[in-house]
Amino acid sequence: MTNCIHDHGRWGKGDQLGASHFLTPERTLQALQSVREGQILDMSHTIEIGAPRIAPTQSPYHIQAGPTSAGSIRRRRTMGATNDAGSNLERIEMTTHVGTHIDALGHFSKGDALYGGYSATETVDDFGLLNLGIEHMPPMVTRGILLDVSRHDGGEHLESGRAVTISDLEKALAATKLTIQPGDVVCINTGWGRFFMTDNERYLAGEPGIDENAARWLTSQDCVAIAADNMALEVLPGTNHPEVLMPVHQHCLAEAGVHIIENLVMDPLIERDVHSFCFMLSAVKFKGATGCPVRPIAII
Fold it and tell me: Which of 72, 79, 91, 216 sits 20 to 30 Å CA-CA off 108?
């Protein structure tokens, strides 16, 4: 294992890729060659009006129609068109952190320090990030590993505020008979995802998730991203709440350069008892954005 805090010295000051450096052609080929059945499993939630969000930080998903088919037909008729070509468009408003999404490295800082030696004061502009925006994250085609800790306490899911520790992850990893390799995406199933859009109040009131030590253990093994079936990856309230808030985000994004994927759906994999798979994710290149809604898939 490598040093658990990459501290952006590994790839030099000014780096904007972080652990994405581990997404090599060799890793991509290995992931693709692991496919046996050709089945594609969707690992994302539908983003819809009412989707859970953390207020007031996150604004809600809102979609509004316009122009519409009827209106566009009327306008085209005035232009002389006779074939009544109706087109429908819409306007969407939301934060990029609603639904299944990935965090850009510029999403969190430690004080003024961002990943890569960047200063938040100089990087965070009125119209987006000048550095470390989601447009710098390359597409991911690599191996995914599913670690299921949902039944570690005897029920179908862990409870709110339950910290997932290194020991929990080691136990889940041992059950898969796998080892974490550089470039892997580690997906942690706590069972909390069952409350997404079924009990949003409970889903947002707190959550089971990894603690800071577990995050450091994962990043020390050179994973490219850590994903979970909850809203914030890390345990909420935190283990040192309220003195220390969101330490996992600070470590993963600002120190280690490891992306965070939240609100992931892992039930299709668990139902098939699949723990290793070809993982694919690509984010829209919204320049300067701190994250992006995504539709990750597992190919088995």
Answer: 91
Structure tokens at 152: 């570690």
Convert the pLDDT of each residue in 163-201 to its tens digit. Answer: 999 999 999 999 999 999 999 999 999 999 999 999 999
Q: Whole-number mean pLDDT of the chain?
A: 96
**For the range 20-25, what are the long-range contacts, defined as Cβ-Cβ under 8 Å and sequence gap of 24 or more?**
20/137, 20/138, 20/140, 20/224, 20/257, 20/259, 22/182, 22/183, 22/222, 22/223, 22/224, 23/138, 23/140, 23/141, 23/142, 23/183, 23/224, 24/183
Over residues 111-147, the pLDDT tens digits come to 999 999 999 999 999 999 999 999 999 999 999 999 9
Indicate whether this model's pTM tops 0.90: yes
Omega prior to 208 cis, within 30 of 0: no
* Torsion (CA) 45, 50, 52, 56 in degrees, nearest 10: 140
Which among 288, 298, 300 has a CA at the least distance from the CA of 135?
A: 288
Give the whole-angstrom CA distance, residue 94 versus residue 135: 18
Report how far residue 184's alpha carbon sits from residue 141's, in angstroms, rounded to the nearest whole number: 10
Residue whose C-alpha is closest to residue 249's, from 232, 229, 231:
232
The DSSP secondary structure of 84-137, one letter per residue, reads ------EEEE--TTSSSEEE-GGG--BTTB-GGG-BHHHHEETTEESSS-GGGS
Q: What are the structural domains of the chain?
A: 18-48+97-299 (3.50.30.50), 62-93 (no CATH)
The pLDDT, as a whole number, for residue 10 is 84
